[in-house]
Amino acid sequence: MSLTIREALKFGGLFGATVVAGEEGLDIPIESVSVLEIADRNISHWVLKKQLYITAFYAICDNVEQQKVVIQTLIDYGGCGLVLCYVGTWVQQIDQEIIDLCNEAGFPLIQARQDVSYIEIMNPIQNLLYKENAPALEPNNETGIRNDFLNLIINEENMNVVFQQMNQRLEKRISYYDTYGKIIFSDRDDADIQKEEEYLKYNFNHVLYACSKKGYTVQSIEGKECLIVLIRSQKNLFGLFITDYDETFSEEMEEKLIHPLVVSGSLILRRKNRMADLREKAVQEYAADLLVWNFPSNERAVERGYELGLTILDKNCIVLININSIQQMTSPKVQQEIQDYVKRVLLGKIEEFMKSYNTDNWLALRSDTIILFMDNRDSKIDMKKFCGRLLGLFQGKPNLSVSVGVSNSFTEVTKMPDAYFQAFEAAVIGREHYGENKVIFYDAVYFFQKLRKMGAQDETYEVCQRFIGPVASYDEEHGTELVDTLRILLENNGNTHTAASQMYVHKNTVLQRRNKIIELLGYSPFEMPHLLNFLIVFDILKGK
């Protein structure tokens, strides 16, 4: 019996989900399931009939018209439904026009539970669908690998050399791609590689579906018949390879070509992924040691960098991107989804942009921060423009808030911990004073940071309390809000209209409170030099 959306709502990540619209389409069979990342009409290139799509509408969460375009495309091309995740985090509320569109077309629109991730929805459905289909290739059996390939994999460290040697021994030109459709290795012509990459960009999901039964498919790429094979084990997908299709293809060819390459590719790419994970962890640990200078000598610090292919002697500036959204989310699963999105979609763009200035620049991702180690000797880079364009990579993505902090330049690598502290303070303190999604240089928060240090002293805190004492005592005795009124008036340059709007009271109420504050203090805190004192007082108290 075919799996329908109605049945899928009874188990796994869709259990407890809400059918928002299109209930009459719940009995349409699901033939495949996929994540919807692209948010424009281009999805028409790879929408599959009876495929269930999962999305959070990251890029268009506040654009109802674009959401309608995407959903209408899914309807027109036969998609069987859409699961919307993290409603209230990205899409704040499903618009009535969206609901009406889905109801009219009988297109199921499902709102997932807030605590459910994409993978928790996809895996149970995929597992059931694969059981219903014919068994896919099972390259986990390493007895099918050619001995010469196995020797290559064991003895050769360079992955490209292994792929090249395998291609030569098979007398084939073959391209290998990762799970994002990015080229890993190819000895095919540049024109062919370009066509393959363009094809995978718009048809990757279609390829996965076409390979779901046998593990391979024959597709026409720019009028040329190509054999596309998934490189996977029973539990993991590592990528795929593409080669010219031979019309003499047979079961014997499957045994001689496909099976050995799938098993070999799985072993190579599994090792590559593990090496990449280990390197990422090593880079994170190295960055952590740099930021506290945890080395027995300067020479050892430099040497460890060389071991990872990283340089530090030419670095003289640190840029820190604080991902505010991760800190602001209370759900660990939503935090993880944002981290995955940043790592999967944005980190590569940041690295590519940064290295376009200097290929020796490097970065490290640490939980909710991205740290850029920059070479800007002799001020060759206009850091304001650089960071402005860097910030632009995050803009246009609602609910993804960041703050960028920039350190002062330094001349000795042992000063990296100070530079990191400066960049961090610029991002965090700058966010409080200048707002989110801004680029802040350390000098802009220097005095704020010094005030915070003053506030840590008991004597300073007691002085601050004495300044607001008469007003605070009156509030405590009469249940008023004069201290908050004073703070908000100061933050808005004494503008009573703006203060009234922020406090949701009438302007005359603010005027009355303002006069009472002056009466209690015996002077106006809104005029110099008293104004400066109270600005300092409230900034110090903000840090408490």
From TrEMBL:
Residues 13-128 form the Purine catabolism PurC-like domain. Residues 482-536 form the PucR C-terminal helix-turn-helix domain. Residues 297-427 form the CdaR GGDEF-like domain. Belongs to the CdaR family. This is Purine catabolism regulatory protein.
